[in-house]
Amino acid sequence: MKLTDFLKDKLIAHIIYIASGLITIIFMSAFHISIQAILTVSIIFLLAVIIVDIWEFIRKKCYYDNLMRCLEDLDKKYLISEILYEPDFYDGKLLYTVLREVNKSMCDNIAVYRHENTEFMEYIELWVHEIKLPVSRLQLMCHNDENSKYCEQLKLIDNYIENVLYYARIRNSEKDYIIKNISLKKTFSNIALKNREELLVRNISVRIEGLDVYVMSDSKWLSYIFNQLMSNSMKYLANSLSPEILVFAEDMNNKTVLHFRDNGIGIPQSDLPYIFEKSFTGENGRIYTKSTGMGLYIVKKLCLKLGHSITAKSVQGEHTDIIISFGKNDIYQF
Asked: Directed axis angle between helix 35-73 and helix 11-30, to 10°?
């Protein structure tokens, strides 16, 4: 709070004070009061106005300067009312009351929103679990009838259903995962086994190197990430004589780096910075209409929640390399 701003705000009051003082002096002169008395009264009046302004400026400046400092330091500005104290001047008390009421109203609205959001999440999760049962039965029936075309479409439906479930859980994923040492080799082997039929049909070879390492992560979330990367690789593999997916790990001092590489159609350099953005399909998405642009977005969000970093490198027409970095646990080693 600046003194100049305070004086500008008090300008009308000061004009009234000056006008009142001049009128008082005129009346005192009309009654032939001595000059010394008029000067004495004027000085007392002037000192009273100055002292009142100084006192008002100091206490308001302390309060509002503290308010602005707190506001600047807060990441969540709406919590300002929780750390403020009630001042001893009237307009400050009004401001304090307004902020408290606004904060209470906001908290009530957030509570309603959270309740509605929780109910919606519970319904989505229930729906996903229920719809997966008939899809699994249909997959089993198609497998028994050896109908690979229907199996492929049902697998796509199953993947999209999983995307819905994991996307719905992103915001509250902290309640749904347990970080512990898990084997990269075991986790990836389970995903490769899950996709074995499509790998065989497409004649895609899978190679692994250096996966005999453990990383700190959640097995369920990491399995979803691997499955999504596997699906992407199979979708965009080049129609060559030897389509291949290579998965290898580099064990370093402070981290483990996993590479998920395929020799597919690659990603244009203009699209590469945006592939983890929501609903981004890019040039390849226009060619392959099955792309929704949500898979890598969900993968990126889950990696951030788990504390992993994920990047991508690609050469169009040659390969795509998705790189996930796992931090190491300094306290406990498996």
From this structure: 170
